[in-house]
Design goal:
Blueprint lengths: L6 E7 L6 H13 L3 E7 L5 H10 L4 E4 L3 H4 L6 E2 L1 H6 L4 E5 L2 E5 L1 H11 L8 E5 L3 H12 L4 E6 L2 H14 L3 E6 L12 E4 L24 E4 L8 H8 L3 E3 L1 H17 L5 H11 L1
Parallel strand pairs: 1-2, 1-3, 4-6, 7-8, 7-10, 8-9, 10-11, 11-12
Antiparallel strand pairs: 3-5, 5-6
The structure holds NADPH dihydro-nicotinamide-adenine-dinucleotide phosphate.
NADPH dihydro-nicotinamide-adenine-dinucleotide phosphate (NDP) binds next to helix 5, helix 6 and helix 9.
Length: about 280
Protein backbone atom coordinates (compact mmCIF):
# COMPACT_ATOMS: atom_id res chain seq x y z
CA UNK A 1 0.00 0.00 0.00
CA UNK A 2 1.73 3.26 -1.08
CA UNK A 3 2.21 5.99 1.53
CA UNK A 4 0.73 9.47 1.11
CA UNK A 5 4.12 10.72 -0.04
CA UNK A 6 6.63 9.14 -2.40
CA UNK A 7 9.77 7.68 -0.82
CA UNK A 8 12.60 10.20 -0.89
CA UNK A 9 16.21 10.11 -2.01
CA UNK A 10 18.42 13.02 -2.99
CA UNK A 11 21.67 14.88 -2.84
CA UNK A 12 23.11 17.12 -0.12
CA UNK A 13 25.17 19.70 -2.00
CA UNK A 14 26.49 23.15 -1.14
CA UNK A 15 25.30 24.66 -4.39
CA UNK A 16 21.89 24.48 -5.98
CA UNK A 17 23.62 24.36 -9.38
CA UNK A 18 21.99 22.02 -11.89
CA UNK A 19 22.72 18.44 -10.87
CA UNK A 20 22.19 16.00 -13.75
CA UNK A 21 21.80 13.14 -11.24
CA UNK A 22 18.28 14.44 -10.44
CA UNK A 23 17.15 13.81 -14.03
CA UNK A 24 19.01 10.49 -14.18
CA UNK A 25 17.46 9.07 -11.00
CA UNK A 26 13.97 10.38 -11.60
CA UNK A 27 13.88 8.97 -15.15
CA UNK A 28 15.01 5.57 -13.87
CA UNK A 29 12.46 5.54 -11.00
CA UNK A 30 9.61 6.43 -13.36
CA UNK A 31 10.73 3.79 -15.87
CA UNK A 32 10.80 1.14 -13.09
CA UNK A 33 7.34 2.21 -11.83
CA UNK A 34 8.79 3.18 -8.43
CA UNK A 35 7.08 5.87 -6.35
CA UNK A 36 10.39 7.48 -5.36
CA UNK A 37 11.67 11.03 -5.83
CA UNK A 38 15.26 12.37 -5.99
CA UNK A 39 15.76 15.97 -4.95
CA UNK A 40 18.82 18.22 -4.84
CA UNK A 41 19.10 20.02 -1.47
CA UNK A 42 21.36 23.01 -0.86
CA UNK A 43 22.93 22.24 2.53
CA UNK A 44 25.55 24.63 3.94
CA UNK A 45 28.37 22.91 5.88
CA UNK A 46 27.11 24.11 9.29
CA UNK A 47 23.65 22.62 8.58
CA UNK A 48 24.75 19.12 7.58
CA UNK A 49 23.73 17.60 10.95
CA UNK A 50 20.26 19.19 10.68
CA UNK A 51 19.89 17.86 7.12
CA UNK A 52 20.88 14.33 8.21
CA UNK A 53 18.39 14.38 11.12
CA UNK A 54 15.75 15.71 8.72
CA UNK A 55 16.36 12.86 6.29
CA UNK A 56 16.06 10.31 9.11
CA UNK A 57 12.93 12.04 10.44
CA UNK A 58 11.28 11.96 7.02
CA UNK A 59 12.32 8.36 6.40
CA UNK A 60 14.46 9.02 3.33
CA UNK A 61 15.82 5.82 1.76
CA UNK A 62 19.21 7.52 1.52
CA UNK A 63 21.11 10.35 -0.09
CA UNK A 64 24.25 11.35 -1.98
CA UNK A 65 26.79 13.86 -0.67
CA UNK A 66 29.02 16.10 -2.74
CA UNK A 67 32.12 18.09 -1.71
CA UNK A 68 32.67 19.18 1.14
CA UNK A 69 30.05 16.92 2.72
CA UNK A 70 31.79 13.74 1.48
CA UNK A 71 34.18 13.84 4.44
CA UNK A 72 32.11 15.79 7.02
CA UNK A 73 29.31 13.20 6.74
CA UNK A 74 31.57 10.59 8.39
CA UNK A 75 30.71 12.14 11.80
CA UNK A 76 27.02 11.24 11.38
CA UNK A 77 27.28 7.61 10.23
CA UNK A 78 26.79 4.39 12.20
CA UNK A 79 28.74 2.20 9.80
CA UNK A 80 31.13 2.45 6.85
CA UNK A 81 31.45 0.03 3.94
CA UNK A 82 35.02 -1.36 3.74
CA UNK A 83 36.13 0.65 0.69
CA UNK A 84 34.60 3.88 2.05
CA UNK A 85 36.56 3.33 5.26
CA UNK A 86 39.83 3.05 3.30
CA UNK A 87 39.03 5.98 0.98
CA UNK A 88 37.93 8.11 3.94
CA UNK A 89 35.04 9.70 2.06
CA UNK A 90 31.40 8.84 1.44
CA UNK A 91 29.21 9.88 -1.47
CA UNK A 92 26.22 7.61 -0.77
CA UNK A 93 24.37 7.06 2.51
CA UNK A 94 21.79 4.33 3.10
CA UNK A 95 19.16 4.86 5.79
CA UNK A 96 17.95 1.65 7.43
CA UNK A 97 15.30 2.88 9.86
CA UNK A 98 17.60 5.54 11.32
CA UNK A 99 20.81 3.51 11.07
CA UNK A 100 23.09 5.17 8.48
CA UNK A 101 25.68 3.32 6.41
CA UNK A 102 28.18 5.17 4.20
CA UNK A 103 29.44 3.87 0.88
CA UNK A 104 31.78 5.35 -1.71
CA UNK A 105 30.27 4.50 -5.08
CA UNK A 106 32.54 6.78 -7.19
CA UNK A 107 35.22 4.10 -7.43
CA UNK A 108 32.67 1.29 -7.73
CA UNK A 109 31.08 3.15 -10.65
CA UNK A 110 34.47 3.34 -12.35
CA UNK A 111 35.30 -0.34 -11.80
CA UNK A 112 31.86 -1.51 -12.93
CA UNK A 113 32.13 0.63 -16.09
CA UNK A 114 35.64 -0.77 -16.69
CA UNK A 115 34.41 -4.35 -16.28
CA UNK A 116 32.26 -3.87 -19.42
CA UNK A 117 35.51 -3.93 -21.44
CA UNK A 118 38.24 -5.35 -19.15
CA UNK A 119 38.61 -7.41 -15.97
CA UNK A 120 40.75 -5.27 -13.60
CA UNK A 121 42.24 -8.35 -11.86
CA UNK A 122 46.00 -8.61 -12.41
CA UNK A 123 46.15 -5.40 -14.50
CA UNK A 124 48.59 -2.50 -14.25
CA UNK A 125 46.95 0.91 -13.72
CA UNK A 126 48.33 4.43 -14.14
CA UNK A 127 46.16 7.12 -12.53
CA UNK A 128 46.69 10.81 -13.33
CA UNK A 129 45.66 12.88 -10.29
CA UNK A 130 45.43 12.29 -6.55
CA UNK A 131 42.21 14.10 -5.56
CA UNK A 132 38.90 12.60 -4.44
CA UNK A 133 38.10 10.85 -7.73
CA UNK A 134 41.63 9.42 -8.05
CA UNK A 135 41.53 8.17 -4.45
CA UNK A 136 38.23 6.34 -4.98
CA UNK A 137 39.38 4.84 -8.31
CA UNK A 138 42.81 3.79 -7.01
CA UNK A 139 41.43 2.05 -3.91
CA UNK A 140 38.52 0.36 -5.68
CA UNK A 141 40.72 -0.83 -8.59
CA UNK A 142 43.22 -2.25 -6.09
CA UNK A 143 40.43 -4.00 -4.17
CA UNK A 144 39.20 -5.42 -7.49
CA UNK A 145 42.58 -7.14 -7.88
CA UNK A 146 44.75 -4.65 -9.81
CA UNK A 147 48.36 -5.86 -9.71
CA UNK A 148 49.89 -2.36 -9.70
CA UNK A 149 48.67 1.21 -9.31
CA UNK A 150 50.97 4.10 -10.25
CA UNK A 151 49.83 7.54 -9.07
CA UNK A 152 51.01 10.48 -11.20
CA UNK A 153 50.40 13.88 -9.65
CA UNK A 154 51.57 17.50 -9.89
CA UNK A 155 51.71 17.96 -6.09
CA UNK A 156 54.06 15.28 -4.70
CA UNK A 157 52.70 15.22 -1.12
CA UNK A 158 49.17 14.37 -2.29
CA UNK A 159 50.38 11.77 -4.78
CA UNK A 160 52.71 10.09 -2.28
CA UNK A 161 49.97 9.97 0.35
CA UNK A 162 47.63 8.18 -2.06
CA UNK A 163 50.31 5.70 -3.18
CA UNK A 164 51.06 4.92 0.50
CA UNK A 165 47.36 4.44 1.24
CA UNK A 166 46.99 1.94 -1.62
CA UNK A 167 50.09 -0.04 -0.71
CA UNK A 168 49.28 -0.05 3.03
CA UNK A 169 45.61 -0.99 2.75
CA UNK A 170 45.39 -3.21 -0.34
CA UNK A 171 47.35 -6.05 -1.97
CA UNK A 172 48.32 -3.96 -5.02
CA UNK A 173 51.84 -2.63 -5.57
CA UNK A 174 51.58 1.15 -5.56
CA UNK A 175 54.06 3.78 -6.67
CA UNK A 176 54.24 7.52 -7.23
CA UNK A 177 55.62 9.62 -10.10
CA UNK A 178 55.81 13.40 -9.92
CA UNK A 179 54.10 14.95 -12.96
CA UNK A 180 56.56 17.47 -14.34
CA UNK A 181 56.02 17.45 -18.11
CA UNK A 182 54.58 15.28 -20.88
CA UNK A 183 54.07 11.98 -19.03
CA UNK A 184 55.49 8.90 -20.76
CA UNK A 185 53.16 5.95 -20.16
CA UNK A 186 55.28 2.95 -19.00
CA UNK A 187 55.36 -0.18 -21.19
CA UNK A 188 53.04 -2.84 -19.80
CA UNK A 189 50.36 -0.38 -18.65
CA UNK A 190 46.88 -1.87 -19.14
CA UNK A 191 44.71 1.04 -17.95
CA UNK A 192 45.48 4.78 -18.04
CA UNK A 193 42.99 7.01 -16.20
CA UNK A 194 42.61 10.78 -16.24
CA UNK A 195 41.30 11.38 -12.71
CA UNK A 196 41.99 15.13 -12.81
CA UNK A 197 39.47 17.81 -13.73
CA UNK A 198 41.52 18.77 -16.84
CA UNK A 199 39.26 18.80 -19.90
CA UNK A 200 36.01 19.58 -18.05
CA UNK A 201 33.62 21.72 -20.15
CA UNK A 202 34.19 24.43 -21.40
CA UNK A 203 37.92 23.55 -21.40
CA UNK A 204 39.13 21.49 -24.34
CA UNK A 205 42.56 20.78 -22.80
CA UNK A 206 44.08 17.34 -22.43
CA UNK A 207 46.27 16.19 -19.52
CA UNK A 208 49.96 16.48 -20.49
CA UNK A 209 50.72 12.96 -21.73
CA UNK A 210 53.20 11.83 -24.39
CA UNK A 211 50.63 10.16 -26.65
CA UNK A 212 53.40 8.43 -28.63
CA UNK A 213 53.73 6.16 -25.54
CA UNK A 214 50.00 5.24 -25.53
CA UNK A 215 50.07 1.78 -27.10
CA UNK A 216 47.21 0.31 -29.18
CA UNK A 217 44.79 -1.80 -27.17
CA UNK A 218 45.31 -0.28 -23.71
CA UNK A 219 42.23 1.09 -21.98
CA UNK A 220 42.24 4.87 -21.60
CA UNK A 221 39.57 6.20 -19.24
CA UNK A 222 38.47 9.71 -18.34
CA UNK A 223 36.54 10.76 -15.22
CA UNK A 224 35.42 13.91 -17.00
CA UNK A 225 31.84 13.25 -18.15
CA UNK A 226 31.20 16.58 -19.88
CA UNK A 227 32.04 16.49 -22.74
CA UNK A 228 31.66 12.69 -23.02
CA UNK A 229 34.40 12.43 -25.66
CA UNK A 230 37.22 14.54 -24.21
CA UNK A 231 40.34 15.62 -26.11
CA UNK A 232 42.28 13.10 -23.96
CA UNK A 233 40.05 10.21 -25.08
CA UNK A 234 40.07 11.39 -28.68
CA UNK A 235 43.87 11.50 -28.85
CA UNK A 236 44.12 8.09 -27.17
CA UNK A 237 41.58 6.68 -29.64
CA UNK A 238 43.72 7.97 -32.52
CA UNK A 239 46.60 5.91 -31.04
CA UNK A 240 44.44 2.75 -31.12
CA UNK A 241 43.55 2.72 -27.40
CA UNK A 242 40.11 1.62 -26.10
CA UNK A 243 38.39 4.72 -24.69
CA UNK A 244 36.16 4.60 -21.58
CA UNK A 245 34.05 7.71 -21.08
CA UNK A 246 33.34 9.36 -17.70
CA UNK A 247 29.65 9.06 -18.56
CA UNK A 248 29.85 5.29 -17.96
CA UNK A 249 31.33 5.85 -14.49
CA UNK A 250 28.56 8.28 -13.62
CA UNK A 251 25.80 5.93 -14.84
CA UNK A 252 27.29 2.94 -13.00
CA UNK A 253 27.62 4.98 -9.84
CA UNK A 254 23.93 5.98 -10.07
CA UNK A 255 22.97 2.33 -10.71
CA UNK A 256 24.86 1.26 -7.58
CA UNK A 257 23.29 4.04 -5.48
CA UNK A 258 19.81 3.00 -6.63
CA UNK A 259 20.52 -0.67 -5.86
CA UNK A 260 21.70 0.24 -2.35
CA UNK A 261 18.59 2.37 -1.68
CA UNK A 262 15.89 0.28 -3.38
CA UNK A 263 17.32 -3.23 -3.77
CA UNK A 264 16.46 -2.97 -7.48
CA UNK A 265 18.58 -2.93 -10.64
CA UNK A 266 17.31 0.07 -12.61
CA UNK A 267 17.68 0.55 -16.37
CA UNK A 268 21.18 1.73 -17.32
CA UNK A 269 20.06 2.77 -20.81
CA UNK A 270 17.33 5.04 -19.42
CA UNK A 271 19.87 6.59 -17.05
CA UNK A 272 22.45 7.16 -19.77
CA UNK A 273 19.93 8.84 -22.09
CA UNK A 274 18.72 11.11 -19.26
CA UNK A 275 22.32 12.02 -18.49
CA UNK A 276 23.15 12.80 -22.13
CA UNK A 277 20.03 14.98 -22.37
CA UNK A 278 20.98 16.92 -19.22
CA UNK A 279 24.70 17.62 -19.64
P1 LIG B 1 40.04 17.27 -6.72
O1 LIG B 1 40.07 18.77 -6.68
O2 LIG B 1 39.93 16.52 -5.44
O3 LIG B 1 41.40 16.76 -7.43
C1 LIG B 1 41.81 17.29 -8.65
C2 LIG B 1 43.08 16.59 -9.13
O4 LIG B 1 43.41 17.10 -10.42
C3 LIG B 1 44.31 16.82 -8.24
O5 LIG B 1 45.11 15.67 -8.24
C4 LIG B 1 45.03 17.97 -8.96
O6 LIG B 1 46.42 17.96 -8.76
C5 LIG B 1 44.74 17.60 -10.40
N1 LIG B 1 44.81 18.76 -11.29
C6 LIG B 1 43.86 19.74 -11.45
N2 LIG B 1 44.28 20.64 -12.37
C7 LIG B 1 45.50 20.22 -12.80
C8 LIG B 1 46.43 20.71 -13.75
N3 LIG B 1 46.20 21.83 -14.46
N4 LIG B 1 47.58 20.01 -13.96
C9 LIG B 1 47.84 18.87 -13.26
N5 LIG B 1 46.99 18.36 -12.34
C10 LIG B 1 45.84 19.03 -12.11
O7 LIG B 1 38.87 16.89 -7.72
P2 LIG B 1 38.05 15.51 -7.80
O8 LIG B 1 39.01 14.39 -7.69
O9 LIG B 1 36.92 15.55 -6.85
O10 LIG B 1 37.41 15.59 -9.26
C11 LIG B 1 38.22 15.41 -10.41
C12 LIG B 1 37.30 15.25 -11.62
O11 LIG B 1 36.58 14.03 -11.49
C13 LIG B 1 36.25 16.37 -11.79
O12 LIG B 1 36.23 16.73 -13.15
C14 LIG B 1 34.95 15.66 -11.43
O13 LIG B 1 33.86 16.20 -12.12
C15 LIG B 1 35.24 14.24 -11.88
N6 LIG B 1 34.40 13.22 -11.27
C16 LIG B 1 33.72 12.39 -12.10
C17 LIG B 1 32.93 11.38 -11.60
C18 LIG B 1 32.18 10.49 -12.56
O14 LIG B 1 31.36 9.68 -12.10
N7 LIG B 1 32.44 10.55 -13.86
C19 LIG B 1 32.79 11.16 -10.15
C20 LIG B 1 33.60 12.07 -9.34
C21 LIG B 1 34.36 13.07 -9.90
P3 LIG B 1 47.10 18.62 -7.45
O15 LIG B 1 46.97 17.61 -6.35
O16 LIG B 1 48.49 18.86 -7.89
O17 LIG B 1 46.33 19.90 -7.18
Amino acid sequence: MPGFLADLTGSFATSAAQNPTVAVMEAAYVHAGLDIRYINCEVPPERLGDAVRGAIGMGWLGFNCSIPHKIAILDYLDELAPSAEIIGAVNCVINDDGRLTGENTDGQGFVNALRTILDPAGKRFVILGAGGAARAIAVESALAGAAAVEIVNRTPSRGQALACLVSDRTAANAGFTEWTGAYAVPDGTDVLVNATSIGFHPSTQSPDVDFATVHPGIVVADVVANPPQTEFLQRALERGAQPLQGLGMLVNQALTNARLWTGRDLDAGVMRRALEDNL
